[in-house]
């Protein structure tokens, strides 16, 4: 092992650059994130392949494909970079003089009304801690968590979760069927068959189908034998609620998301025989000891 390491096939910086290329499947986006020119990044990758004696990337004018060897290295790179990042974060948190920071990434399908349960208690008890919050797709959250780029993710999880991810909190997020008040007044809610036909004739606002919530909701609608083609697809329940209130159509939305909406007279909740629920989870990396201030944040989550 020592003899192999002395040949220095790559360093952490080269591994980080390869990790960016593998994650983005794009030299352009990877170079932009790394702050390099594309030609400089290309030279770095060519040098890495020469030193390893392996082809990691097949690049054409239109795409970047990662070879089998590259996929193996990409998986290990995620683990190694995440471990180094965690070690440095822990070192800084324990012995550094800067204010401690927590990097939290929240799924775009969570609403503003979900946020107090995540942040309020910790803000009250530990106001010295800085929270850096980002909104991302669930897949991007899991990738960033495995790479050590964030400390905590909050999302509707895929099934199954990677072994490297640990759930610290889980709760059921119940949904309601909402409609503009003027439209809801015409709903034949007392006659089940007529009500289903009426629903099928309405305009619908759906959460985006590429989200975990969107996929789960569509499967549930299929089980309810409801075919509700979308007039609009969005990745924000707050935006959906505002558009329903403006008369754009009906939607299934988290009940909790309605709590902060002020113009409640413009929206009516319609009864539905079955209730859709999704899981929401807070997750951290499995193979790491959380810095004390991150552990405290996890303990202060109120769902």
UniProtKB/TrEMBL annotation:
Keywords: DNA-binding, Transcription, Transcription regulation. It holds the Pfam family HTH_1. CDD domains: PBP2_LTTR_substrate. GO terms for molecular function: DNA binding; DNA-binding transcription factor activity. PROSITE patterns: HTH_LYSR (PS50931). Residues 10-67 form the HTH lysR-type domain. One of its GO terms (cellular component) is cytosol. Belongs to the LysR transcriptional regulatory family. This is DNA-binding transcriptional LysR family regulator. It comes from Prosthecobacter vanneervenii.
